[in-house]
Amino acid sequence: MASEPQSTIAKRREQMFPLLEPHEVERVRRFGETKTFHRGDYLAKIDEVGAGLIIVLSGHVDISQRDMLGASKHIVTHGPGSFMGELAQMSGRPSLVDAIATDDVEAVVIAPSKLRSLLIAEAELGERIMRALILRRVGLLETGAGPVIIGPAGDSDVLRLQNFLSRNGHPHTDLDPETDVEARALIERFHVDKSALPIVLCPSGEFLQNPPELKLARCIGLVGPLDGDRLYDVAIVGAGPAGMAAAVYAASEGLSVLVLDCRSFGGQAGASSRIENYLGFPTGITGMALMARAFNQAQKFGAEFAIPSQVVALETRRDSGRDTFTLRLSDDQTVRARSVVVASGVRYRQLSVDNLKDFEGSSVHYWASPLEGKLCSHQEVVLVGAGNSAGQATVYLAGRAEKVWLLARGGDISASMSQYLVDRIRGLPNVEILTQCEVTRLDGSDGILDCISWRRASGEEVERKIRHLFLFIGADPETGWLSNTGVKLDPKGFVLTGVGAGEDCASLESSVPGIFAIGDVRAGSIKRVAAGVGEGAQVVAALHTFLASSPAAQPVS
């Protein structure tokens, strides 16, 4: 980190490592406990859950990270008035750095729960601390702390793992054994055959062979066991804009909140390359940046997250004279809550092409992030879709690809896309818009596309040598886990709420009292980020009313 002249440390060192004045240290002492450490003691250790935010009163502490071969790399030395920690300390997750006392140290240790209290109670000072924690995470993302993914660039499973970690804001390093000497050294050390790639080397020293996301998340401490006996005020299923907004507002108003998502925070919005029509961001903002801010904000107010955790069933049961909800997860864990907010969004639709799945991950993509942008740099790509997500992806890819073929199955794209995007796309010299077109055939081998064929409105068949296909053709509601709950759905599978669900149903409430629906999964919702955020804020009022009245939910059929 420190050796890179254009790194975040180099540009924003004062904000990353601010010094607290003596009177500021005194103000925050009440949130922590004073402890003494001796020379050589670890105040934090990679892969071990840290004690929280640590403010140095006297002495010095070296902060370092380890590379994939175990060598230590110095980041910064903390002295009196400085503090240790980054975003992992807000949620009690394992440390990504080592912190070693270089002489005797006296420090104030603030546990994660107390740190969240400090950030809220000491607003001005809390803002400086929060900014530093975020910037330190950005620095670690730049330098690749955390797990190491070893596998060929462009491999579908390598991309899957990279996307999972990137979209959850977790630092990692990617090594291609074809081009990296250290990658080959690690393969030899662990006696791994190249046919077994990719592998992931966790900070603990454990290595995983092509792990599913949940196994990787457990290995790096991103998710841990849930307390099946705890009763939350609300469980929010889905961490897109609607679910995030509900988490922020509910937690800030004192409700105990658990947010579950099967993949990452941010939902489809988190995969957007740039959102330009969201209120308050006149120059636009990436979906990832917007959702990361929401994620940190929700944690600041005490919302808990279990990601990745897939909810597969929902049940009700009588508990102390009232109905409560039990959510069953794919790994057989259970979670209990007094109310449930369904914010599970939608799943991407697929083209009706026989061999589509053969190329998913490596050549067929459902979002356009920097990873995909790098893959298709200076190449021709095909993008199918005509909505705002398709428009945003087209603009993003046009800045990286040699040419973008935008295929719309309908007529004029302005019928379904915001005008500012239509105008921008029409002004891009390397984008060609083809309406009333559909992809008819995919050809390739070993999971890599060679050619894409499509049919024009005239019936003419076109074939081009193109390796990457992006699909933004809409989505279907993610409501399969609600089967046998009594929750009413419309003919397309979206959750009915309010008067559409029943005469006595409150706004945003489903046909089952205590179960609410917001965002894209709700029937009649406006498929926009701002609308989802608005519903996330609105549902909290309904939650308060429901929880205060303590009605008995209808039994599940």
Structural write-up:
The protein is an alpha/beta fold and 557 residues long. It folds into four domains: 8-143, Jelly Rolls, CATH 2.60.120; 148-219, Glutaredoxin (3-Layer(aba) Sandwich); 231-347 and 511-549, FAD/NAD(P)-binding domain, CATH 3.50.50.60; 356-473, FAD/NAD(P)-binding domain. The longest helix has 21 residues, at 123-143. Mean pLDDT is 92; it is low at 1-5 and 551-557.
Question: How are the elements arranged and paired?
Answer:
Elements: H1 8-16, H2 22-28, E1 33-37, E2 42-44, E3 53-58, E4 61-66, E5 72-78, E6 83-84, H3 88-91, E7 98-101, E8 105-110, H4 112-121, H5 123-143, E9 148-150, H6 156-167, E10 173-175, H7 181-189, E11 199-201, E12 207-209, H8 213-219, E13 231-232, E14 234-237, H9 241-252, E15 257-260, H10 267-270, H11 287-300, E16 304-306, E17 311-319, E18 322-329, E19 334-337, E20 340-342, E21 346-348, E22 364-365, H12 370-375, E23 380-385, H13 388-398, E24 403-408, H14 419-426, E25 431-435, E26 438-445, E27 448-455, E28 461-464, E29 468-472, E30 475-477, E31 515-517, H15 529-549
Helix pairs in contact: 1-5, 4-5, 9-11, 9-15, 13-14
Summarize the structure.
The protein is 28% helix and 25% strand.
Please tell me the total number of domains: 4
Strand percentage:
25-35%
Structural class: alpha/beta
Uncertain residue segments:
1-5, 551-557
What do the pLDDT scores average to? 92
